[in-house]
Records
---
Amino acid sequence: MTIHSRISGTGSFLPERIVTNAELAKTVDTSDEWIVERTGIRQRHIAAEGETTANIAHQAALRALDAAAVSIADIDLVVLATATPDNTFPSTATKVQSLLGMTHGAAFDIQAVCSGFVYALAIADNFIKAGQAERVLVIGAETFSRILDWEDRTTCVLFGDGGGAVVLEKSEKEGILSTHLHSDGRYGNLLYVDGGPSTTQSVGHLRMSGPEVFRHAVVNLASVVDESLAANNYQRSDIDWLVPHQANLRILTGTARKLGLAQDRVVVTVDRHANTSAASIPLALDEAVRDGRIQEGQLVLMEAMGGGFTWGAALVRW
Ligand code: ACO
């Protein structure tokens, strides 16, 4: 029997505090009009003092476990994607493991910035298909507000905090059809954090050459989408839902146009969440599953691109 892996539950969590563009315009030289026109972002959620990536991940995980109707005793692996861990170590995944009261199995973080959730899903899928795990909690959670330079209008308006999670489990039925991961470290200087334990011994701030990242994103995303469809003998027209990483509305509409996909087949949350990096796909996925847009049997394509550069896609039969 071929072993498959399927998403059996989704969950997400957003910090309570909402910051609108108009509020940002009071402290940095920007406007609601500029942000909406260039990015589609209208607001973002920002973590409260003391609210960490692990806290956000924990809440998202509880909701995914509930949706999958499984208890933490049934989970044998936690894979958590984040670029904003609580600490350099221990991993945020082990902190979440502890918050969930899980003392068995294994837990670790993975780091691929905005592509983190696709990377984590690929790892979990491979653990299940290799027979090394049966039920994996896959989480993407971030507190990007903590690494933003709040005086840099070219970056601080773009990001938000949040988390999403899925339970991925062994199944006889098809679920994750394939995952495709890429990276190219030559572009590390176009999107990076200017600090770290081994360089500056500080956390640092996010720096980005926005227009250059934009150009690479459009090309790399179109190519990985076609790669995932070709690997499964599907056409662009077979896609029911595109659940993309939410960086910029113009990238989302551009990708949909390239795919010949109607805009209403793209799950969009960037207007309300901004870019939540590794959390953006599981947040969007949870929204579209809970409001009934994504239905059993449909073909769902997730894709992301982030610092590194890293990029990837996952094609899923829901
Ligand atoms: N408010 C007002 N004006 C601004 C702002 C702002 N918040 N930010 C920049 N500007 C100004 C610039 O200074 C510039 O002014 P100038 O012409 O006088 O020099 C002008 O607006 C145009 O700036 P550009 O950077 O050329 O604007 P662009 O249309 O490219 O939009 C943006 C910038 C939104 C960052 C876009 O390039 C983008 O979305 N890039 C991709 C980001 C992305 O995909 N990231 C993905 C991965 S994220 C991750 O991995 C963590």
---
Amino acid sequence: MVNYIGTATPRVDGRAKVTGEAKYAGEFNISGLAYGSVIESTIPKGRIARIDTSEALRVEGVLDVLTHENRPRMAGADDAWKDDVAPEEGSPFRPLYDDKIRFSGQPIALVLAEEWEIARYAASLVRIECEKQPFVTDLYNQRDQAFVVKKPDKPRGNVKRAYAAADVRHEAEYFIPTENHNPMELFASTVTWDGGGKLTVYDKTQGVQNVQRYLCNVFKKKADDLRVISPFVGGAFGSGLRPQYQVVLAVLGALALKRSVRLVLTRQQMYGLGYRPATIERLALGAKADGTLDAITHEAIAVTSQFEDFSRNDTGWSALLYRSANANYLHRLARLDVPTSSDMRAPGAATGVYALESAMDELAVALNLDPVELRLRCYSDRDQNEDVPYTSKQLRECYRQGADAFGWDKRKPEPRSMRDGSELVGWGMATGVWEALQMPVAARIVLTANGHAEVSCAASDIGTGTYTIMAQVAADTLGLPLENITVKLGDSTLPQAPVEGGSWMAASASHAVATTAKEIRKELLALAKAMKNSPLAGAKLEDVVLADGKVVSKHDEGRAVSIADAMRHAAVDRIEKQKTNSFPDDASHARNTHSAVFVEVKVDEQLGVIRVTRVVSAIAAGRILNTQTAHSQVMGSVVGGIGMALHEETLYDHRFGRIMNANIAEYHVPVNADVQDIKVIFVDEPDEVINPLGIKGLGEIGIVGVAAAIANAVYHATGKRVRDLPITLDKLQR
Ligand code: MOS
């Protein structure tokens, strides 16, 4: 029985969020809290020579100033600092560990005081002397030193020969600057000193069990002595996948003071965490005169730190997506004196597919072909990398329905050929692609005789709607009304879940719930069958469903036992089950989501101001669990894409190795006035191979392709091709 899956179900946590009842990491009120304030390095590389805390310590209300010289003990081995999401290669950053300065904005001292204002004031009185060392923060200065990432790239054919023989060629370099996540919620941790060496840590994170294991390793704590809780997350966009330094400092503070501690980073300090790495992308496409691709080369050089090698699949998308006998791709990293780069909003794809889809647009121009038509001529029903079919791929429908809804057939191909009064009008499009991953997740269900079920799991809801979709799946698989389901998430003591990322949580958590619900059904059927003259006598598990509060025969609705009756007869007042999902682990199919994005921009010819007036995003992502939250999620991703195309850029002053716009006044993100008409279409994509419910996940597909579609629309409007993001008005005047 399906009453909720696939419907527009409002968020079950909506009320808690708008009333402020939903608590975030920095909002848990604990008596006797002390407050921390971080002091960061102002140089990007060097050594701390001397720290004088005497004046700060004289301020009334200051409790301690922690530095690498006096902090409590932390683990020495790299392995202890490797969280679930840490890059394989390298040595993770350790705050207040030693005298080395590795990047500007590195935490080098923590002031602890009775009040936050006191801590912050006292921080200004700490005197720190540093020895500077030569540094580099400019990717373009290091590109020649970039090294190839160890990845099993699978080049095919002979690209060099095919490219030389191509009828039409396009080659260009594209650039994506460093971008910072800037979630609304600041990074914060509240650590409660529970006594007896036990700690409870309220943390802003996308993975409570990841943080729990990490802190236990770093502080050599027993698993039972440290609990991490994070019921709500005020946005993260990937910045909360790895444990961030404030949680280590907050625990250090609590251990030093033997007291509860709260630490909230400032917006500026958050620019010392991870970021989307600046990336130089080189594309070379060779096509036959008929518009079919024959040679694809995609090379990228991305930023990482001096101490860890962070990389994501950036160039592989180009070899996967389109039919081409010859393809070659390569990812390189350049080391800079900055923090380690990190996952941000479709990491790798948002950048790599931006470059690919910009280059495809340029190739379409060179071929004198409609951009949609070019993509259809290169369409592939098989993963071109692995040469396997997709579990499902309705990208063709995305092109068709997206183009229809947009009115693409009215497009005049010539640049600068469409106008609206004083404004130039441009129409552009791009393809999006992301992975449909699924991970092991366990769910516990406790069903009580009053027909209420509590579903619990350590997963986070990072604002994407996990509480709601888990409640929907539980309601349908347990045959109960949605109001009777309570979902508990974000507590490390709950059943196992990985970090919430990679768009894998919807499919994974849904199947954990469905798998556990099946165990409940099994038990209820046994209880129902044990009743005297049971109407379900002889029924097998696969013959019955749970619906309307009853165990019901699929074949005869009249044969049913209410859940309450079955439990009462057996004198059982609760049934508790916990199971882990499982997915067929085979490489026989590719698992991906796809999109087609159509964009209209209007450009003021005199001023160069670009407005994104219309976006149509047609998405193929399997079965949509909740059309309302899914719609919001894709809309949000499109806004992220507008930011990437037109606004977002972390600016360094390379003379000082420091970020110049570490605030949200000067780091621009789209605001209401920048967001106009966004239409989201979910293309029907039945998928019986990927998993039993046919779910793929939506977190990231919505941003992929958006920046390219906007850049392509700007070219169509103005005849000007800007290949370095963001497309600001000055670049249109170059
Ligand atoms: Mo996402 S960038 O995997 O949180």
